[in-house]
């Protein structure tokens, strides 16, 4: 069985998938009925869909992925049913777009595949952030300060956008010395690598809250030889404390100040600068056939 999937590539390895929700307005309304929202740093709220953790040695078939999913929810039945309904649709979309992305860019394949629960995230309108214009500084989801450390590493980032009835709120990329700014449309799903050089920041949204979903493919990493040798050299407890202090110190070293990028992008510098007019008016929407097995 196969189905069509629409997408545009706004940059190599940054795909925007279109028309993948059954009914994005209905999906958003169900999301707004949820009550289990927690604080999301200084700029919003979030709630996990409480899905079961999935682990695969290799990228799964669609049937393997769908049949492995379950829900670990200890909330009231009303909340549980909404989250289960949302999770089923998000999971199927997540699989289809990342499957297509990996086939299009096989060099982005991961050593293994690990998936934690997706979360619904809400940027609060006119909310706080890291600066005047941005909710988030430019960063990568892969934590570079922990690149040698054993554990789960972010590999492929997938973001779902549930509304576009707000001002600003673009996702902006800094890739080496090139810059891309894109205002997601309602129903868009963006997929890109979690590692450098795919730094991305988020501009503040005004007028209405900005709803999105985050979901990732991660992979399990055993740790570098040097890291493991140091653990043996210093002992687990001392090395853990040394690493904790180092990581805390380096936590923001790999972020890029958003306002400095914002000032640079405002100049006529000849770099990439995408907007909705360019994307919708000049880019051809690609239609691919995705095999469902």
Low-confidence stretches: 267-283
| Distance from first to last alpha carbon | 7 Å
Helix content: 25-40%
CATH fold-level topology? Jelly Rolls
Q: Tell me what the CATH architecture is.
A: Sandwich
Q: Pairing-aware structural class of the strands and helices?
A: alpha+beta
Major sheet: 9 strands, antiparallel
Number of domains in the coordinates? Answer: 1
Q: Any idea what the shape is?
A: globular
Roughly what is the average pLDDT, rounded to an integer?
88
Radius of gyration: 20 Å
Task: Give the spatial strand order of the biggest sheet.
Answer: 3-4-7-16-9-13-2-1-17
Number of strands: 17
Query: Strand portion, in percent?
Result: 25-35%
CATH superfamily: q2cbj1_9rhob like domain
* Tally of helical segments: 7
Overall description:
It is built from seven helices and 17 strands. It has 293 residues and is of the alpha+beta class. The protein has a single domain, classed as Sandwich (Jelly Rolls), CATH 2.60.120.620. The strands form four sheets. Strands 3-4-7-16-9-13-2-1-17 form a nine-stranded antiparallel beta sheet, covered by helices on one side. A four-stranded antiparallel beta sheet has the order 8-14-11-12, with helices on one face. A hairpin with a 2-residue loop joins strand 1 and strand 2. Helix 4 packs across helix 5. The radius of gyration is 20 Å and the shape is globular.
């Amino acid at each position: 069985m196969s189905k069509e999937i629409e997408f545009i590539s706004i940059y190599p390895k940054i795909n925007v998938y279109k028309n993948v929700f059954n009914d994005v307005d209905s999906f958003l309304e169900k999301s707004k009925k949820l009550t289990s929202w927690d604080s999301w740093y200084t700029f919003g709220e979030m709630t996990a869909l409480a899905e079961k953790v999935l682990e695969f040695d290799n990228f799964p078939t669609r049937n393997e992925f769908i049949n492995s999913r379950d829900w670990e929810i200890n909330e009231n039945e009303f909340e549980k049913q909404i989250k289960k309904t949302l999770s089923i649709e998000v999971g199927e979309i997540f699989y289809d777009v990342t499957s297509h992305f990996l086939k299009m860019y096989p060099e982005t394949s991961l050593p293994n595949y690990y998936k934690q629960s997706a979360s619904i995230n809400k940027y609060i309108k006119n909310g706080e952030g890291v600066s005047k214009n941005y909710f988030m500084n430019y960063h990568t989801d892969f934590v570079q300060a922990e690149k040698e450390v054993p554990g789960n590493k972010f590999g492929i980032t997938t973001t779902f956008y549930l509304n576009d009835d707000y001002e600003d709120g673009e996702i902006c990329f800094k890739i080496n010395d090139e810059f891309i700014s894109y205002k997601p449309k309602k129903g868009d799903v963006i997929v890109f690598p979690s590692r450098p050089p795919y730094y991305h920041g988020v501009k503040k949204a005004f007028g209405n809250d900005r709803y999105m979903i985050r979901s990732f493919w991660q992979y399990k990493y055993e740790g570098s030889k040097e890291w493991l040798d140091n653990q043996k050299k210093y002992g687990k407890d001392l090395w853990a404390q040394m690493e904790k202090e180092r990581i805390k110190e380096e936590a923001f070293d790999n972020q890029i100040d958003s306002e400095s990028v914002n000032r640079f992008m405002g100049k006529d510098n000849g770099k990439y600068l995408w907007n909705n007019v360019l994307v919708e008016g000049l880019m051809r929407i690609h239609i691919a056939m995705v095999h469902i097995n």
